[in-house]
Every structure is written in structure tokens, then in C-alpha cells.
Amino acid sequence: MPARRNRVTRGEDYRQTVRAGRRVGGALCITHAVLRSPEAEARFGFIISKAVGNAVTRNLVRRRMKSIVDERIHAGMTGIDVVFRALPACAEASFTELRREINRALDRVQNEQTRSGSHV
To answer: Global pTM?
Structure first.
């Protein structure tokens, strides 16, 4: 699980990331990302509404997402705030499908980061 320094915890940070961030859509989740300075820790937040399912299902989806994000943190991802908004299809998706979609979204954001070379 990501350490506290790697989590978006303040409501204002969630709002700023969702409103001003780059949006990458997908079948299982919507990804919002805001670039920060390259030295800053990567931070991740998760929005899993009741539309996804009951509490057990929502917590399973959140734990899976956190595990996938933890892999990216250990691979050296830095300089970004990311908020994932889970869609109801997440409840039926396998771990492999969810990993593929999250990694695709994060790769798209990182490719744009390296192309633009700019940070917020």
C-alpha cells in the first residue's frame, strides 16, 4: 500500500487535480493527473462511489488500485498527482484488466510529461 506521502489526502488537492488535471478516460476508470516538480513524490487518490457496489466491493476495488499504484511508485514514478475515479465496470473487472487500464492511463500521462517537459 502507498505510504501517506504518496497519497492525496486533502479535499482541496482532490478538487484541484480533478478540475485542472489532464483527463484520461477508460472503460474501468477516469484518470485525472496534474504534473508537479520532478523531485516531488508521486501522490495518488481514489474516488470509488456507491455506484461501483457495496462497501465490500468498493474496498476490494480500492485495494486493487492501491496495489497497482504501489508497483508504479516502486518503479520510480515521481512528480505527479493522480486521482482515479472508478466506474461501475470496475466491480466486474479482473485484477489483470484493472492493472492494464491503470498502467495504460499512467503511461499516457507520463508520455505527455516527457514530451512537454513542463511541470505545474
So the answer is: 0.87
> Could you identify the residue written with the cell 505527455?
112
Q: Domain extents for the chain?
A: 4-115
Locate 118 and state its grid cell.
513542463
Burial of 90 from C-beta contacts in 10 A (0-12 / 13-18 / 19+): buried
46-78 confidence digits (pLDDT tens): 999 999 999 999 999 999 999 999 999 999 888
CATH architecture, range 4-115:
2-Layer Sandwich (3.30)
